[in-house]
Amino acid sequence: MEIKFSLSDIEAFEKQDRTNLINGLSGYKSAHLIGTKSVSGLSNLAIFSSVVHIGANPPLMGFVHRPATVERHTYENIKETGHFTINHVPIELYQQAHQTSARYPRNESEFDACGFTEFYGEVLTAPYVLESPIKIGLTLEEEFFVKSNQTIILIGKVQEVYLAPEFILESGVLNLSAARTLIVQGLETYYKSEKIGTLPYAKPNSTV
Predict the structure, then answer these.
(1) Which of 75, 112, 116, 133 has the smallest count of CB within 10 Å of its CB?
(2) CATH code for the part of the protein at 27-192
(3) Cα 207 → chain centroid
(4) Residue 205 has pLDDT above 80, yes or no
(5) Would you state the torsion angle of the CA atoms of residues 167, 170, 171, 173, taken in this order, to the nearest 10 degrees?
(6) Residue 35 in contact with residue 87, Cβ under 8 Å?
(7) Would you say 28 and 183 are in contact if contact means Cβ atoms under 8 Å apart?
(8) Taking all residues of the chain, what is their mean pLDDT, rounded to a whole number?
(9) For residue 167, what is the DSSP state?
(10) Rounded to whole angstroms, how far apart are CA atoms 139 and 180?
């Protein structure tokens, strides 16, 4: 038998319980490491589970950032330079990736603290994660402020992508199972992805 939580029930939860419940309601999400670098040369790396596809032409991706009410190194670096990288997380490095969510001081790079290697392309000043199987470099295009909770949506234009040839199939389809990229439920529970099938483009009155 199902149970029901009303808005008043949810608001009465302890803070962490409420956060875990609401964060998990959207289901499994991709886990990405976002790499940035300040104008002064300090690199930063942080795990995010809010990366989304915005559009293919032009190629746009976005992510939701927490309110900038305290020091936020990722946000501040993107605003300074306009550059950031989105890096898929290999499943064997999930513990190190999770550790990047800790609040390190600005002068301590999460790359060094959490065991990742900085890699630089030819276009951006922001660092990629060398160990990442799929690396995306972006420049900031737009920023939206969400008034209801003060979060920030940042949208970037894809400038370059690094990946192994075996991770891309015909028609540009990515083989994420082969890339062994991480998925997450809520804030701290991680999973492997598994392919269950590929279907044709859906049309009315067609059968699966």
Answers:
(1) 112
(2) 2.30.110.10
(3) 35
(4) no
(5) -30
(6) yes
(7) yes
(8) 92
(9) G
(10) 26
Name the residue with tokens 């936020």.
72
pTM: 0.92
> Structural domain boundaries of the chain?
27-192
What is the C-alpha separation between 139 and 118, in angstroms, rounded?
18
How confident is the model at residue 70, as a pLDDT?
Answer: 72
Highest mean pLDDT out of 128-137, 171-180, 196-205: 128-137
Backbone angles phi, psi at 85, to 5 degrees: -120, 145
Which of 57, 65, 59 has the alpha carbon at shortest distance from 36?
65
Cβ-contact 84, 35 below 8 angstroms: yes
Please, is 35 exposed, middle or buried when counting C-beta atoms within 10 Å of its C-beta (0-12, 13-18, 19+)? buried
The pLDDT tens digits for 110-123 are 999 999 999 999 99
Residue 22 β-bridge partners: none
Give the best-scoring range by mean pLDDT among 17-21, 117-121, 199-203: 117-121
Residue 206 has pLDDT above 80, yes or no: no
Q: CA 48 from chain center: how many Å?
A: 4
